[in-house]
Every structure is written in structure tokens, then in C-alpha cells.
Amino acid sequence: MSADIRFDTSTHTDIGKVRRWGWWGVVEHRALLLRSYWTTMLLTGIGSPFIYLLGMGVGLGVLVDGGQGIEGVPYLTFLAPALVMATAMQVAAQENTYGVFGGFKWANTFTAMRLTPMSPAQMAVGFQVSVLLRVLPMVFFYMAALWTFRIGEPLRVLLLLPLGTLLSLAVGFAVMAWVATQRDERGQLSFVERFVIVPLTLFSGTYFPLDTLPGYLQPIGWFSPLWHAAELGRTALYGAPMGAWEGVLHIGFLSVLALATAMLSMRTFRARLDD
Amino acid sequence: MVAPVISARSLTKRYGDLVAVDGIDFDIEAGESFGFLGPNGAGKSTTMRMIAATSTRTSGTLTVLGMDTNSHGPEIRAQLGIVPQGDLLDEELRVIDNLVVYGRYFALPRAYVKERAEQLLDFAQLREKRTARVDGLSGGMKRRLTIARGLINNPKVMLLDEPTTGLDPQARHILWDRLFRLKEQGTTLVVTTHFMDEAEQLCDRLVVVDNGRIVAEGSPSSLIRAYSTREVLEVRFGAGRNEAVASSLQGVGERLEALADRVLIYAADGEQALQRVLDLGLDPVASLVRRSSLEDVFLRLTGRSLIE
């Protein structure tokens, strides 16, 4: 016969601790879920930066550099920081579509957390932090590729980590705020990838400077978190010229987007989880 | 007098025009095993969600452990163990990880959670499934894991929404045994069920709910005493004949219910009633004398069967 459960009266839930640290539980939970995917993560993580940088460098790069590079640097150097940011954006968006929707509908993550003292706001924040578990390794593998190919200054490469984090939070919360309002999956989740992320990648000055686009397409870049992050990335990596106020504007845009959509996400989570 | 653990007055929940819970009053004492018995859609689960402070009430008052559910959700849930109708386990995780991950949502120390999770595996008789993925478990095992999960934070009160719905008889008995043990150790159990046998097995006291209202309250035996006779005679006269024969059975027992498939005759002595049926020259296809149950109470109170 099995043992009876002993009741330990000395350990009780400390509600103050839950308020401060509850969100961390989401990060631990999602880290456990990633455990079964780590080989795939490692392979794509190592593989894609090298394939992209190599392909762009020896292919498109040769063509562009046949002129004189862009902004006075080789094409690969110009492209690399934007590619890192584009990857951060893609991964953040991806995790926040199926991850968030599934958390309400398929995997029960949020609905089960609802039975604990966790607040809906903590779930949204914890989930967003957990997305960094996917984003930051990808950024890191890109950094390793940059070091290997000697692109940019070795120490300045490190700045891509905080930039990738900021971009991931901005894009992640924005996607989350919308996905959390979706009740049924009728294929609209894949719209995020096809009609938001891909166009943003193409029109955000990733592969060429934004001002080479016709004037009427440039506003897409101004409202694209990727453009702001890529511009910051270029200044960080190789010192692309940027005025102080421009820097403030770029960081400000990303921060305000992250904060505003975080508030929106928390509100949606609260409403959705009150039944 | 000790304040009740859970107390509701005129508790109401509306979804648009639908009144799911219609102004109910109840008090649940510490250490008591309390049940909400009623058919599907009676408002039991909605009431449970309001107690768990995951659903905001429309009006009335509701306090759990002395706190208002509308303003103290996290504080209340910190001391509750909740077993929802749909388990809500993480099917991709291993059994043991489901317990640990959940415990961390209460911000309990990792070492404590791990030790407690191991104890709970034994309690839930899932030791040999420790590292199995949840999606491979049987329904009964998942249910026990959900109960174990609900116990990770040493709750004072367990909320169990339809704890054995969908389980086979053996799995139900194992589960009831586990719940008895909790009760013996002083945990307050709040159970919703549409099974009369479950209510009789588990509950010291219960309320019968129908259409969002409480129609009766008491212990299982007192409800049976108040609303039914000691015994019931069930007679079957074959398809389509039951209702026709019922008119000639008036007066055989104290009361009579003609159902589509059988006629229930309520009497203190079922065998005697059967003899009177035979004396009338009626020849039932089958007959059965049994003790009155909560099913009979429900039928008497609402005119309907619990499971429709």
C-alpha cells in the first residue's frame, strides 16, 4: 500500500513571493518544454547563421561590393546586424503565435496557471521572458558566426544581445496582444508570419538602406520595429553614423512599443482568463 | 463559533441573459466534505469557478477563508487545491515535471517542491509512471495526477469539479479512497458531481442544485429521509406499457413515478409493495427492491432524472 501524504504545516505559499517571482515559474516551465527540442534548436541555431552569412557574403555581397559596399562597409557587414535582428523578430513572432494561442487552447498552459496564485499579467510577462530562451541562443549563434567571419568589432558584437532582447520584447508583446484575442484558429495565425513578419523583413532596410525604397514605401520602415533595431545594430556593430536624437528615437520607439503592447497583452489575458 | 471556510449569500452569475447561478446561499465549514449535486448545466462548475476566484460574480457576496473572491483571487488560490473538470495537465511534460512546474507557480522553494512531488507520486499511486509523458496515461491516472498537483501547496481546501466523470468503476474507487484519506487528515473537500453514488460516498453534507438554484440541503441520509421513502420498488412492464399501467398502481406505495422504462413505487417496505402489485393481477417483466438514493431525492425535487 502506498504511503499517505504527510502534511507539512511549516511551508505555505508566501503571496509576496508569488507576486515578485511567480513569472519565473513560466520561464522554468517553458525551459522544461524546450528540453525535448534542444538538438533541433542547436542545429538550426548553428546552421542558419553560417548558411545565411556565407551565402549572402560570397553571393550577393560580391555583386554589391563590386560597386563599393554600402555606407562605406562591405555588404556583409552592412547586412549582418539586420539579419540578426530579423531572426530575433521571426523567432519572437513565431513563439508568440502558436505558443500563446496554444497556451489558451491546446496545451492548457495559461488555463492551468490560472488555478494558482499567479496573475494573468504575470503569465504574459513570464511567457515573454521565456521567449528569450529561444531568441537569445539564436542571437548568440549569429554572434559566434560574426566572430568567426571577423565581421564588426569583436567587443561591439556583444551589443547585439541587449538589442535583440529589446526587439524580441517589442515584437513579442505586440504579437501576443493580438493572438490572445483570437478564440479560434482558422489559419489566421499563419498570417502573422506571411503578411507581417515577411513584409517587415523585406521593407525595413534589412537587405538595403531604407532610403533606397521609393518614398511612399519608407513609412513601413519607420513603423517597423525591425528597422529601428537594425539601425541600432549597425551603429553598434560598425559605428554606422547616427545622431544622438536618432538613437533616442530608435530606442524610444522600441521601448514604447514593448511597454504599450505589454499593457495591452496583460489586459487581454485578464479578460480572457476571467470566466 | 468558527467562521465558515466558504460563505456565499445571494451569489449570482449571469452570462448575458443566461442566469447560470441564481442567488444561492451556502456555508462550508472547515474539515467538512461538501457537495454540489445536480445535472449538467445546473451551475455547479460556475459556482466552483467563483469559489476559485477565477470567475467574477455578477452580484451577491462570496468569501473564501475570510477573503472576498473579487478582490483577493491570488491570496485565496494560494491556499486552495483545485481539480478542474478538464485536468489541464501539460501533456508534453513528464508526470513528475507536471507536479514540480505547478509547485513553482506558488513560488515554493525548488527543493521543497521536488520532495513534495515525490511524496505525492506515492499518494497518487503513480510511482512507476514517474518519468512517463502525461499523454500516455489512462484517464484515471491523469485524474490522480491532477489531484496530486492540486495538493502541491498543502491546501486547506480542495475543490474537485466532477472528480470521477469519465472514469471506469475501478478507477473511481481508487480515487474515492484517495479523497477519503485527505478528508481524514482534515482537508476540507468541496465536490461537484452529477453522480448520486459519488455524492453519497464523499459528502457529509450537500446541496441539490437545479437551474442555478439550491433546491434542498442536508446530509445524504437526511435528504433521503426528508424527500423519499426508505425503499423503492422498481417495476418494468415492457416498452410503452409503463405509463399506462402506472394509473392502476396508484395507492400501492406512498408515491409513484412513472418513467419511460420503469415505474418507481416509493414505500417503506418494497417487498410488501411488490406483493400488492402482484395481488392486483399485474405481472411485471422485471422487479427490483432497493434502498432510496439521492437519485430519488433529485427526481422528487425536480421531476427529472440526474443523468438525462
Automatic annotation (TrEMBL), chain A:
GO MF annotations in UniProt: ABC-type transporter activity
Keyword field: Antibiotic resistance, Cell membrane, Membrane, Transmembrane, Transmembrane helix, Transport
GO annotations of cellular component type: ATP-binding cassette (ABC) transporter complex
Lipid bilayer topology: Multi-pass membrane protein
Entry's transmembrane regions: 40-63, 75-93, 123-145, 157-179, 191-210, 247-266
Boundaries of every ABC transmembrane type-2 domain copy: 40-272
Identification of the protein by name: Transport permease protein
Automatic annotation (TrEMBL), chain B:
Key words of the record: Antibiotic resistance, ATP-binding, Cell membrane, Membrane, Nucleotide-binding, Translocase, Transport
Source organism phylogeny: Bacteria, Bacillati, Actinomycetota, Actinomycetes, Propionibacteriales
Organism of this sequence: Tessaracoccus bendigoensis DSM 12906
Protein name: Lipooligosaccharide transport system ATP-binding protein
GO molecular function ontology, one term from the record: ATP binding
Domain ABC transporter stretches: 6-236
Residues in coiled coil: none
An annotated GO cellular component: plasma membrane
Gene Ontology terms describing biological process: carbohydrate metabolic process; response to antibiotic
Family assignment from sequence similarity: Belongs to the ABC transporter superfamily.
Subcellular location(s) per record: Cell membrane
Topology versus the membrane: Peripheral membrane protein
